[in-house]
Amino acid sequence: MSIMQALQNNLDAKAKQYKDPALMHIFLMNNIHYIVKSVRRSEAKDLLGDDWIQRHRRIVQQNANQYRRVAWSKVLQCLSGQGLTSSGGSGQVGSEGGNSSGASRTAVKERFRSFNMQFEEIYQKQCGWSVPDSELRESLRLAVAEILLPAYRSFQKRFGPLIENSKAPGKYVKHTPEQLELFLGNLFEGKQERP
C-alpha cells in the first residue's frame, strides 16, 4: 500500500507540471488506468484487494470527467443560446430569423465563428495527445461526442436558419454534426491533424 501511495504521490507531482489542466487530467487518467490494469493482472490484486481497484477505477473516471469539463466547457458555451435572444423580442431579427427567437444575426455569426475557432484549436491540440488504451480512448471520445454533438445539433437547428441565406453561410457553419463526429474519432491518437 505504501508503495502504491508513493507512486500516486509521484504521479500527482508530475501532473502538476502540465500547464494545460485538460492534459493534466489525461495524464492522470492514462497512468492510473495503466496501474489499475496492471494490478488486476498480477498478484498485487490479492494484496491490494477489490476495494482498492474499484476506488482507483473511480479516480480514472473522475479524471475523465474533469478532462471533459475543463477541455470542452468553452466550446459548449459557444453553443448556448444564452445571450443570443431577447426576452421581449426587440432584438435584431433577420427576415428569415423567425425560429431564432429574436437572435441577432451578427451575434449568431460570432458564436459560430467562435465555435469553429475553439473546436479547431482543441482538435488540433488533442489529436496529438495520446490515450494508449483503445477502450479508454473510445470511451473518452464517446463521452465528448455525447455532450458536444447534441449541443451542436440543437444550436445549428435553432440558429442556423438565421444565417443560411446570408452572405457566405459556409464561413460560419463549417461542419455538419456528422463531420464533427468523424473529427472526434481522431482524438488521442498521438498524431497532429487539422479539421
TrEMBL record:
Q: Where is the composition biased (Gly residues)?
A: 86-100
Which keywords does this chain's UniProt record carry?
Answer: Exocytosis, Protein transport, Transport
One Gene Ontology cellular component annotation held by this UniProt entry: exocyst
Organism domain of life? Eukaryota
State any single GO MF term: phosphatidylinositol-4,5-bisphosphate binding
Residues forming the Exocyst complex subunit Exo70 C-terminal domain are 1-184
Pfam families reported for this sequence: Exo70_C (PF03081)
Q: Look up keyword Protein transport and say if it applies.
A: yes
Q: Which SUPFAM superfamilies match?
A: Cullin repeat-like
Q: Which residues form the signal peptide?
A: none
Q: Which segments carry the region annotation Disordered?
A: 84-105
GO terms under biological process:
exocytosis; protein transport
Function field: Component of the exocyst complex.
> Can you tell me which family this protein belongs to?
Belongs to the EXO70 family.
PANTHER family, per database record: EXOCYST COMPLEX PROTEIN EXO70, EXOCYST SUBUNIT EXO70 FAMILY PROTEIN
Protein name as annotated? Exocyst subunit Exo70 family protein
Native species of this protein?
Answer: Aegilops tauschii subsp. strangulata (Goatgrass)
Q: What is the lineage of its organism?
A: Eukaryota, Viridiplantae, Streptophyta, Embryophyta, Tracheophyta
